[in-house]
Amino acid sequence: xxxxxxxxxEEYKSPFGAxxxxxxxxxxxxxxxxxxxxxxxxxxxxxxxxxYVMEAEREEGDYIVYKAELVAPNYPCxxxxxxxxxxxxxxxxxxxxxxxxxxxCCLYYENPVPYQITVASRNIRVPKWYKEGIMYxxxxxxxxxxxxxNLYAGRKGFVKYEDWNDKNRYIKDDSGDVRFWDVYGGNxxxxxxxxxxxxxxxxxxxxxxxxxxxxSNHKYDTGDYEKLDFGYGKDEDFEELVEECKKNDISxxxxxxxxxxxxxxxxxxxxxxxENTGAFQSKDSEYYDWFRFKDYPNEYESWWGNKSLPNxxxxxxxxxxxxxxxxxxxxxxxxxxxxxxxxxDVADELPDEFIQILKSETLKEDKDSxxxxxxxxxxxxxxxxxxxxxxxYGDELDSVMNxxxxxxxxxxxxxxxxxxxxxxxxxxxxxxxxxxxxYSCMNLIGTxxxxxxxxxxxxxxxxxxxDEDTRYGYVLSEEQRSFAVKRxxxxxxxxxxxxGVPCIYYGDEAGMEGYSDPYCRGTYPWGRENEELLSWxxxxxxxxxxxxxxxxxxxxxxxxxxxxxxxTRTLGSExxxxxxxxxxxxxxxKLPGSGYEDILTGEELDRKTKIQGFGFILAIxx
Length: 622
Description:
This protein is α+β, with helices and mostly antiparallel strands. It has 4 domains: 3-120, Immunoglobulin-like; 130-259 and 312-546, TIM Barrel, CATH 3.20.20.80; 260-311, no CATH class; 553-621, Sandwich (Immunoglobulin-like), CATH 2.60.40. The protein is built from 15 helices and 38 strands. The protein has an 8-stranded parallel sheet. The longest helix has 20 residues, at 478-497.
């Protein structure tokens, strides 16, 4: 007996993908004739099981099409479903395949893997400035120095490199703790001076790693949320940065690190650096209730066991007022200074209620503000601490860091994932994310938490197999680097043309290398850029900036098999075709129709054309 179901095909499930609250969903199953069977569809909503009997709708040759009509609940949630088929006393099941990526079905005799339908609010709207923008991530200390003042002069606990081009590494003691924080002196004045450079890349959004005062180089151990870090400049520098960004149509997003603070902060104040009384010093401190002490004062809950980062009690009323709700709360203070949105560090460490309040309060301050979450997995069904998160229900996040995009396409370009598997992974995100979110994802290739793209794409050894000194000193060979540049050009082309918000991690466009933290956090190589890569980035991202099709056009996969991955973007009568060949050998590619021309050269293309090894097609049909 043959049974067909494919959740990616509207012949079987309509509408495709996520649905709005109260929307009707038509589910169809195609079954070979001449079998006396019973069909039900089992649906689970928030743990409640409901069975729908499927009725025969029509015949198609040797097959009967069975149909069930579902109506989504009037509240956001996830629906899980599979099909139960009875034959006499036997029951077997049709469900999702074990990798849980949706699409074609699998047969089970017990414990079927269900399909997912995301039910979201009908009122989701992500602001245009964000959804159609191009983002650039800046780690301030490592981007650029402006002015000639040494802002770290006289500051204890920091060691400043004299040479901007020196390689960075942590300075640790025998126990492995950081003894001194190594810094280079990158500051906001340096960013201001480089705004023309950023505009030449098409950048319209700057995402900054933390800029609040902190006693480290990474600033994820906040010392005082109210102050700009002394190493990054003065308040007037931030004001000038905001003004220059406004003049150049650039919006600013800050890193909101709200699940923990530094033990060397005014709130905890373990070392007495601040004049006020911190929670570590006295139970009478105004901040005492912010922390979760186990055995006061030395035993307390900290972020992943790192004692330098005490966790906070996010739902404590005084903490909520200080960070979010108060008339002069932290998020409101910075938004009044010109900040347009927040990237939430470790969003899965924050309660849903906290994110909901954050979103509500930011909208009061600026109706076009956005909240972006750090989520490494499929954000539609993310669970943390055994709780299903509500990121996409319409009242929390506007966007997430699209790590599945990074994992899929770096794997494809590097040869670890073939075209069919890459498509399955991307289609799963496309199916599970409400459309407004899919077209607003922060599409990244690298971040401060990952191996540099060029290092990964150069077939370098897995860093887990290397000791610290080898990781520190590792440099791609000339042959590896040439190979990696070819791959990165393909990967960045996908990033520049895919739905969502492309985010360039500072220096990727210049050919920076390095394993993960701290080696992915080197200094931008001003005057030593890889000109081939930099010219390429400018070309494709400036094209993205000016293309309404790439900013707003519908996405559809095309030919994705083996060494090829391709898709189309369509808006009105215009269609752009993007195809990349990750193989070193030429491949024949058939365009979806005629009348195409090469976007970068203007040459007309034959319906059947050739993609060179490590090559691509970027074509437009009007």
